[in-house]
Amino acid sequence: MTTRTTAPSRPLPGLAALAALATGTGPALEVTSPSDGRPLGVVRQADEREVEAAVRAARGAQKGWAARPPRERAAVAHRFARLVLDRRDQILDLVQAETGKARVAALEEVLDASRTAAYYGHSAPGLLRARARIGALPFVTKTTELRHPKGVVGVITPWNYPFTLPASDTVPALLAGNAVVIKPDEKTPFSALLTLQLLREAGLPEGVAQVVVGPREVTGPAVVDAVDFVMFTGSTATGRKVAARCGERLVGFSAELGGKNPLIVLEDADVPAAAAGAARTCFANAGQLCIGPERIYIHEAVRERFTDLFLHEVSRLQVGPGSSWETQVGSLASPAQLAKVRSHVDDAVAKGARILAGGAPRPELGPNFFAPTVLADVPETAVLCREETFGPVVALYPVASEEEAFARANDTGYGLNASLWTAPSRGRELGARIEAGSVNVNEGYAAAWGSHAAGMGGWKESGMGRRHGPEGLLKYTESQTVAVQRLPIAPSGRMSAERFADLVTAGVRIMNRFL
């Protein structure tokens, strides 16, 4: 692999103004950059009472916001989408500073946030309009389905995509007529605060969206206990706790959780393209990507060729800090994440795995860099075999047949994303055999992730509900049926109950044939 040096980090103006947008007067939280340890800024934290006050304020602002026509709310989303592109470099600088990721990985956040906002800006008015439905009795029952906002939505986001996740979850909730309280990870609060600033610049009234910062064990539960719906992104273990808490309160919950995503290379794959795509995908965002592959299953017929080409592509990855567009792999987000990645690799090697590439930290690049790592012969007993590593590490597994490839890919409690490399003519048919919420054929994750009109989310232990697509907005609404009846659905006048029963039975027979 290639190491890149870089110029000194760019200064980040305006962080004090962003910090002032946070709701909280508690202890100061110092935010540092994981790539070089430099301090970025300070944000005041909110305690439980301040979170409750933020939710009350949001609830007070929500009624006026919901009263605006959907097209007026959608105009805010369109302006936000344009602002995100206009302020691209500012967003990239901040995201890189807070996460240590490569600039090309930060670009994904800009593009996704803008496209999500534009998609919902276009589609929200149609999704929210009143819809006529078939009534109980034709011509005498007029039935309409309405959509109402939930109220206040809590959006809890992690550190790995600190700009696009707050944006892409908040925008559809707002367009549905809700207010939103965002709780970002305490390592990356400024990206969420920039989201809030841009939404206000786009015309969102003050109070409708707010950001609360604080320790996850304090601020997170306080948000969950106060809001009317929770959108959570994070680990499966924490997701279970959030779901249980929401269940006790009988409030809605949607979540994108962990994954141990497979990448399958079949006998008919374009092997050079698969090798290049796998290297690009497995180490995107330094592997800190819920939908990135951590397991590669290679058909025995192409195993040797794929492995050689893949290792060559990995050796060419440019690793390092800084804002160069040529850098492909940046820093891990924290010492804790570095320690987890290292422990998974060391455990696998101790149990018999072979290191084909990487396998160690790169302290000469910065405190939290880890080399892109490829392992073979990882045994079932290794932690890395089954648990999500969430770092620049991937394991190779040979398979003798398509059947074995799909069986092993599906042999997991997770089901978030998958990558399948095969002839395009077989892509949809074979993709449907994988137990995952999204499947990318001849791509790693960007094809499905970037299809904003289609839902994205996990099966099994990888989540509940969907972001993107109609469901990504409608989940933030309550459905209401209003049925206006012109004549009673009951015997009337001199009609006997038996005669009424015969008539309605005959009517239902006719309805069953045509409706």
Provide tags for this entry.
6-stranded mixed beta sheet, 7-stranded mixed beta sheet, 42% helix, alpha/beta, 515 residues, single chain, 19% strand
First-to-last CA distance: 63 Å
Kindly report the average pLDDT value. Answer: 96
* Spatial arrangement of strands, main beta sheet: 14-15-16-12-11-17-18
**Class derived from helix and strand content:** alpha/beta
Instruction: Specify the biggest β-sheet.
Output: 7 strands, mixed
Q: Please state the CA-atom Rg, rounded to the nearest Å.
A: 25 Å
Number of strands: 20
Q: What proportion of the residues form beta strands (DSSP E)?
A: 15-25%
Number of helices: 18
Helix content: 40-55%
Shape: globular
Uncertain regions spanning at least 5 consecutive residues? none
Structural write-up:
The structure is a single chain. The chain is globular and about 90 Å long. The protein is an alpha/beta fold. Helix 3 runs antiparallel to helix 5 and helix 4 runs antiparallel to helix 7. A seven-stranded mixed sheet has the order 14-15-16-12-11-17-18, with helices on both faces. It has a six-stranded mixed sheet with strand order 8-7-6-9-10-19, with helices on both faces. The longest helix is centred in the N-terminal third of the chain and has 26 residues. The protein contains 18 helices and 20 strands. The chain starts with a strand and ends with a helix.
Break the fold down into its secondary structure elements and pairings.
Layout: E1 2-3, H1 15-19, E2 28-32, E3 39-44, H2 48-66, H3 70-86, H4 88-99, H5 103-128, E4 131-133, E5 141-149, E6 152-156, H6 164-175, E7 179-183, H7 189-201, E8 209-211, H8 216-224, E9 229-233, H9 236-249, E10 252-256, E11 261-265, H10 271-282, E12 293-299, H11 303-315, E13 318-319, H12 335-350, E14 354-357, E15 373-376, H13 383-386, E16 393-399, H14 402-410, E17 417-421, H15 427-431, E18 438-441, H16 446-449, E19 463-464, H17 469-474, E20 477-485, H18 497-514
Parallel strand pairs: 1-13, 6-7, 6-9, 7-8, 9-10, 11-12, 11-17, 12-16, 15-16, 17-18
Antiparallel strand pairs: 2-3, 4-5, 5-20, 10-19, 14-15
